[in-house]
Amino acid sequence: MSDEVTDPHDATDPLRAAAEVMRQVRERCVWSRAMTHRELLPYLLEESYELIEAVERDDRAELREELGDLLWQVLFHAAIAAQDPEDPFDIDDVARTLSEKMTRRHPHVFGDAVATTPEEVLVHWNAAKAAEKHTRRSVLDGIPRGMPALALAQKMLGRAAKRGVDAGPPTGAATETPASEAELGDALLALVATARARGWDAERALRERTRALEDAVRIAEAKD
């Protein structure tokens, strides 16, 4: 990013102005100067959850504000990265990397490939992603283990299915299937209530079961 000072109230380039506000805050605010990537993570999680809530509530004003708060986190991390003594990069580098990646992953938009359905788009996306991540050896590589247990389980199940690993309910488990997403929510809440009544940790229980699923997938891959 250029060292030239940009008016933080410049309406002609709001994104550049926001980046300049962040730069000045990072340089002149004592609290912001002290922040590291790791110390910012709780705020990133909090802002992400607040954005999710705004979407689920269909609150347009809140959505606009929370998108801005999440953008601020991106700008903040980029400002910290720009000061790294060994491997510095700034928000321009982040944006450039993003643009290059999205161009590669949309050959039906920026190239000669054809995609007339969402399914065909995913084929191109997955092919481009596989080419970028060619060093990965497992279908589970790239899954953030720090995800909440429920999101992690859903992600892991999708990858397990690609390897043909069945993760159906164990013998003796309840087999009643909810007929809607609302009923699924009721069933999940009832399970959490059961865990609470019996002194079990629902988050840990699902995470441990997901870990067993991961072991099964890696065993299947090792046999190839």
TrEMBL record:
| CDD domains assigned to the protein according to its UniProt record, in alphabetical order | NTP-PPase_MazG_Nterm
What is one Pfam family matched by this protein?
MazG
List the InterPro entries: MazG-like_dom, NTP-PPase_MazG-like_N, NTP_PyrPHydrolase_MazG
Boundaries of every NTP pyrophosphohydrolase MazG-like domain copy: 36-110
In the UniProt record, the signal sequence range is none
Name-wise, this protein is MazG family protein
